[in-house]
Amino acid sequence: MNSKIFKKFPVLETERIIIRQMLKTDVNVVFDFNTCQDSLEFIIRKPFKTIDEAKDKLSFFLSGIENKTAFWWVFTLKETGEDIGYGGLFDISTENNKAEIGYGLIKKYWNKGYMSEIINAIIKFGISDAELHKIYGAVISGNQASIKLLEKNNFKKEAHLTEHSFINGNYKDETIYSLINN
Ligand SMILES: CC(C)(COP(=O)(O)OP(=O)(O)OC[C@H]1O[C@@H](n2cnc3c(N)ncnc32)[C@H](O)[C@@H]1OP(=O)(O)O)[C@@H](O)C(=O)NCCC(=O)NCCS
């Protein structure tokens, strides 16, 4: 992997969105996403009730940036300046040249093609600039939007984990999708 990539935090851009570094002032977007039950349907987490929970989560993200084990970005609409969600490449392993991908948008911004733009830019960055050999994502069964996004970007189903996560009282299957840079 290209270690120079950590020298300056990368800002990415699509037609409608700036994909910018997550900052310690970004507690609101973390809170807004994590208080919505629908957004968390396929994420192993109970909705946040307090802003302190969002602050703790944000601190965790920022420590990943600090330790150079993650790039966490906030997605900002160019036209209005609204922060619509966040995501990143995390658990970066420089030894194995791989990283996991994760993302989420606040519900009112779903189904407008925003994530399709964003994921494409993040993958391009991960493969072409960061020179990762592998990017992978874990998807809880039923998360059709996420599966579509990954498959559209040439991720292949790699492993199916049966009853792997306990969500809201039910065991859910999880599937690992991956993109190998050959
Ligand atoms: C997953 C998520 C980021 C998708 O964002 P989005 O901006 O709505 O995605 P897009 O509008 O770019 O749509 C991507 C594709 O999925 C399809 N899609 C969207 N929602 C869908 C659904 N519920 N069922 C089936 N397909 C769906 C779209 O039609 C589109 O397909 P197309 O390119 O063939 O038209 C958003 O739903 C979200 O934040 N979900 C909650 C968090 C989450 O689950 N994160 C992923 C964890 S693995």
Q: What's the topology here?
A:
Elements: E1 12-13, E2 17-21, H1 27-34, H2 51-66, E3 71-77, E4 83-93, E5 98-105, H3 114-129, E6 134-140, H4 144-152, E7 156-167, E8 170-180
Residues 39, 42-43, 103-105, 110-116, 137, 139, 143-146, 148-149, 152 line the site of coenzyme A.
Describe this structure in words.
This protein has 182 residues and is α+β, with helices and mostly antiparallel strands. It is 27% helix and 35% strand. It is built from four helices and eight strands; from the N terminus they run ββααβββαβαββ. It has helices at 27-34, 51-66, 114-129, 144-152; strands at 12-13, 17-21, 71-77, 83-93, 98-105, 134-140, 156-167, 170-180. Strands 1-2-3-4-5-6-8-7 form an eight-stranded mixed sheet, with helices on both faces. The mean pLDDT is 96. The structure holds coenzyme A. Coenzyme A binds next to β5, α3, β6 and α4.
CATH topology: Aminopeptidase
CATH homology-level superfamily: Gcn5-related N-acetyltransferase (GNAT)
Class based on secondary structure composition and strand pairing: alpha+beta
Strand percent estimate? 25-35%
What overall form do the CA principal axes indicate?
A: globular
Largest sheet: 8 strands, mixed
Determine the oligomeric state from the structure.
single chain
- Helix/strand order: EEHHEEEHEHEE
What's the total number of strands?
A: 8
Helix content: 25-40%
The CATH architecture assignment turns out to be 3-Layer(aba) Sandwich
Integer tally of domains? 1
| Ligand identities | coenzyme A
Cα Rg: 16 Å
Instruction: Trace the largest sheet across and list its strands.
Output: 1-2-3-4-5-6-8-7
